[in-house]
Amino acid sequence: QPSPDEGILAGLNAQQRTAAGHGDGPLLIVAGAGTGKTTTLAARVAHLIQEDADPAGILLLTFTRRAATEMLERVARRLRGAMGDAGERAAREVWGGTFHGVAARVLRVYHAALGLPRDFSILDRGDTEDLLDLCRGRLELPSASGKGAGARFPKKAVCAAVLSRSANSGETVAETLETRYPHLMQHEAALRRLFDLYDEAKGEQNLLDFDDLLLFWEALAADPKAGPALRSRFPRVLVDEYQDTNVLQARLLKNLAPDGRGLTAVGDDAQAIYSFRAATIRNILDFGEHYPAATVLPLETNYRSTAAVLTVANAVIAAAAERHEKTLTATRQIGPKPLVVRCRDEAEQARFIADRVLELRESGLELDKQAALFRASHHSLALELELQKRDVPFKKFGGLRFLETAHVKDLLAFLRLAENPRDEISALRCLLLLPGIGRGRATKAVAALREAGGEFSTWADSPAPSGGASEWTAFVSLMQTLAANRDDLSSQIRRIRNLYRPLMEATYANAAERNRDLEQIELLAGRGRDRASFLADLTLDPPSSAAATAGPHEDEERLTLSTMHSAKGLEFEAVYVLNACQGGIPSDQAEDDAAIEEERRLFYVAVTRARTHLTICHPLTRHLKPRGLRDGYGFAELTPFLTPAALAGCEVMPASEDAVDAAPPTPAATVTAADVRAAIRGRRG
Ligand code: ATP
Ligand code: MG
Prior knowledge:
Keywords: ATP-binding, Helicase, Hydrolase, Isomerase, Nucleotide-binding. One of its GO terms (molecular function) is hydrolase activity. The structure is a single chain. It contains 30 helices and 19 strands. Helix 6 packs across helix 9, helix 10 (210-222) runs parallel beside helix 12 (247-256) and helix 22 packs antiparallel against helix 23 (489-507). The protein is α/β, with parallel strands linked by helices. The structure holds adenosine-5'-triphosphate and magnesium ion. Magnesium ion (MG) is lined by residues 37-38, 240, 569.
């Protein structure tokens, strides 16, 4: 047990201590869920700072910004204990965030070394697709929906996916097409031309897309002149969830720490769930090859889950085709058996979960210690309705992107254009909102702005469009004001809202609701935020719903609704797994064995989030939409990931008597009801 004289590593077990106190050599910690990998990483950062490492020279790379913030809190707590306020201040200087977030920050500091203007804008996935589409048009490639011209050119989302896959996997476009999109091979030359033009357009407009952030950072780190400076500025790099890094990220790390000195990675190959983003567990498996000096340490005690939960989790992962045996011992012996609950349908599942959440709430378990997890964002719809009906507050992660809604994108386009007048996508977006301006006129206005070197005053000199003169004047003067960037960011947003509100009312039926979303953004901007970093944050780590930005109600206790992907690394006293059926998890999109194995690991991630109460729901009927068939209701079999061994550790119960009645799928009988009646008649003679 921890005692005060244990200092900065207080509360860690012997294995964790060895890892946290490890010297400078490359270190990999591979261990199962809940063994304290993240805890150990935080302790290691605190230890480094206490040992006089410059906190501003520490890069702490995590999967979400939320995870980084949480980890830095833990670092701060440890340091406050050991070094008082100075320690806490030091913790705030650590560079923590996602790969992309930290990349953006590094590039804002080192942009000049690459000859990159400081005010570059970041394209999100949607912008990337739009710009690709614009370039496609310029090349006069056939549009995806166009007729004739032989085979159809892929849709913009597919083009973006090919490009990103190739960047993240380190493959050429041809290789990516061959392995992932063989049916698009015939478009290889055209796609390469498209990607070249897209790169050119980004260069001209001072834009970077998500993948560029990593590629530019990598180029900087690999550079014979700038690289060494960057390395001495950031001599320590620590990475959580290493199993979900891809080839590009591994290459970047290799350039940041060529011999692995100062590099620490932690992960669990059994929790690898991002291969669709080109993540590869080869990074874990080959760590020793990439860094011959590497030390690999295990952690073997699980502190999170009760033995009852762990038994089920271990049985789930034991069935994996490929698996690296890990020892996991539970420290928490007492706890209820996990429940497998058969529900008639998704509505009953929602009612059951809501009941149970409130029941546990009554017995003292706060809402924020409970979470409902699901495979796909839309799986939570029925539950959301039920919770709303009962006034149970919740927050949703990994859902429909708040920032992808049109009105939010509109508002941000004004800010982005002000920040970077060369950003043509944002310029077009703003211009097309104005009455009296069509494509042709908008394109001309963009060209004029380009020629004027981004001076909005050039617009003031051009004639106003007929039927929209006052809006035009207001718009031009707004852009000039914003470009000066003198006001507070939230006042800037207020100005935009004033101009935008009537335009929005003319376009959308639910303008009032949308206006509240925009108000959230204004609140989020708060005081004293720097516009460029605010935009970068929003683009890189967007809140997934208006509620997630939760200005005024932030303190309110809320139930968590989250996709399984977005729940990784987190833990809750009570976890409810929704739709544990065929087509739920594994998803019906998972077709080959590798995809099914990834779904299994995802299910393992979900169940290992639970500390004490694990409830797995199996709706017996589900709304199905099998490809090629009409939608309808169908029977849903229990997920195959709950193997007999896993089920043996659970208590199986029906949510209600109704649920018992719903029959599992039965093959059609050889006789029909008419046959039976005929037989009865026959027997009567
Ligand atoms: P995951 O694989 O899910 O990311 P992890 O290995 O990162 O899990 P942590 O989240 O760091 O695990 O820790 C799991 C839980 O165990 C946390 O509640 C943490 O506070 C607790 N814990 C970790 N180490 C110890 C310890 N030595 N003593 C007591 N509790 C611990
Ligand atoms: Mg963790």
